[in-house]
Amino acid sequence: MKIEKSLLNIGTSPMGTSLDVIKYEIDSEVEGKTVYLQSGIHGGEITQWILHELFNYLKDNLKQGKVVVVPCANPVSWTQRAYFSTNGKFDFYMGKDWNRNFPGKEDGTLGERIANILICEAKKADFSIDLHTSRQSIPFTIFSKDDYIPFLKIMGIEHNQFIDMGASPSYKNTLNSNLDGLGVDNICIECGSHDAYEPKNVSDILLGIKRLLKSFDMIKGGDFDENSSKIKIFRKGVTYKANKGCLIRLAKELGEQVKSGDDLYYYYDNNDLGNIVAHKSEHEGILFKVSPTHIYWSGDDVLQLLLNDGVEEV
Prior knowledge:
With 314 residues, this protein is α+β, with helices and mostly antiparallel strands. The protein has five helices and 23 strands.
């Protein structure tokens, strides 16, 4: 077993501080597959809980192949703070999602340089996992090819969202879409809520990753069971937006099934004090993502449903 820690330089700050991405390579020194795991391209999306536990597990259980771990893929995004809130979804300088810079460019913008460093590591792997969190949400995977469904089944994460990234301009510059083009199997895992420690989610995602590594015959894996439950594949979703600026209170909990006609949330409008108005659902599905606020401007996203229409259980 060989464990190496290295720094991948992306440039310097205006004060001359080196900007580096930390990489760990856990090598069994026995020939086998290489799996790449990346976390933290968006500041505030805390998934490193999972990687800390996985790292300790691999030190004792990796039997063949190699696991490459990048726990903070974008250190710049984690400096974007206002009071106690880390706001690292978008590049404050360019106004662009940090995960929309791939494949990147060695001499490009800072975001493109970061993307270039990351994809150069990820494309060496046989399989890549990109860890994220999503506002306030239940855990779910995002996948872009039906060929990846067997991997999802092995992992056993219940909710899985299909997005045809190759056909969607808004996803073509993501890590996952670019890895598809390079022929590297990959998935994105939304591990739960932003800036949160959710023990069950950590445990469930860690178990899914272990199951995948076991299926590649990379770890011993005698301390957990293979997945025997069905998973759900969702191909349709819908976003509900605030009709007006006001305070909004949710009527449903994350993970709840929603029926058409159910109350989704309630408007508290200062222009109509005392009149609390319900926004009704027009769809059936599962509430999987909500915005982490009660304060809304007109047109803001409030929540998202994965629709039961066309859902597959496999």
